[in-house]
């Protein structure tokens, strides 16, 4: 199996030649918050799949909904002229779910990258519908992660997702990442950093011309770039600058939309209403590839009032609104609400963060601890004074030793990402911290 995997499977975000030297783990079963590999080793999934399995692996109502829907109607999507019952029900439930965020219409996709692409395309089209066809540019954040389609990669704020695929979309500019550990502003004060990036944004707008910019995109808490929690003033400030300049605000909530930060959405966490919101991942608890873009009334009404071809949506997928995905999402929303996982994410997240900070006291290797709810990271450094990121083999040693000690974590550069299912207990938090401690000792040695 491992040989065949190495010969025939290309892994995302990995070097194809690495697969024989560095064999991937073959996960063959999962239950509760644990996964079991092909050697029979069972570990706690400290990353909830890819921050999508919020409710764990034993969610029977979702599995049953998928089976039932496969029997009833295995395929017929929301492509022009057709739709299906679970999808209609889901769009109603989503409008309820996101009411507080001011989002009432949904456009369905097959995953996060599709959702981001949809937001970028709808943002440009909105301005055309609105009689401002020259608004085509995007502004984003360094360290942001927005998937790997060409549009998403263009707004991505990490070089490794971009450099081999250029030229990307023209007219994209990136503001500084909103975090204190390393920033170009010479301050550790998060409020000052937020204000400084606001000034960068205004400067960029003046330079580009406000009437050329379609949208600003951000994750309310930056995820794959290494977990950066902006100051509470940051997203409202960006909203205000967008409003002043006729620029749309896209919240990329592929990770944050269903409770991971301790709030039901990241935008709500910061008291901000976006114009477009990308969601995916936890919308089906990882059980089915699915996503939804949520659309604010202002945007929706402009499209709906425009009877010309410019108002027609020339965008969508074979699987937009797949009935099995819709049924999975409906069951997921119900379970997500019933289990009130946002509250647990907040409470367990505080315990986890306190534990990570305690580890930082003991282990020189930890340069920084960041997190909100159950999206946390440790940044490993070889020198706390210079903040030099730890090399790959060191971070890998931590990951391997933590796995041997019973917990799966992931790495991203010099960051160790911890993003377990939102249903974990305090005992699970302790298990994660104990395994990380073992991993830190192994990495240092
Ligand atoms: N946006 C964000 C914020 C993400 O974290 C991700 C995935 N990690 C994506 C977009 C892309 O989603 P997908 O991998 O499902 O295409």
Automatic annotation (TrEMBL):
The cofactor(s) it depends on are:
pyridoxal 5'-phosphate
Pfam families (alphabetical): Aminotran_3
- Which key words tag this protein in UniProt? Aminotransferase, Pyridoxal phosphate, Transferase
- Could you state a single Gene Ontology molecular function term? transaminase activity
Instruction: Give the top-rank taxon of the lineage listed in the UniProt record for this protein.
Output: Bacteria
InterPro entries per the record? Answer: Aminotrans_3 (IPR005814), Aminotrans_3_PPA_site (IPR049704), PyrdxlP-dep_Trfase (IPR015424), PyrdxlP-dep_Trfase_major (IPR015421), PyrdxlP-dep_Trfase_small (IPR015422)
Tell me the first and last residues of the signal peptide. Answer: none
State whether keyword Transferase applies. Answer: yes
Enumerate the PROSITE patterns for this protein: AA_TRANSFER_CLASS_3
Note the NCBIfam families from the entry.
PRK07481.1
Q: Which family does it belong to?
A: Belongs to the class-III pyridoxal-phosphate-dependent aminotransferase family.
Name of the protein in question = Aspartate aminotransferase family protein
Source organism of the structure = Rhizobium ruizarguesonis
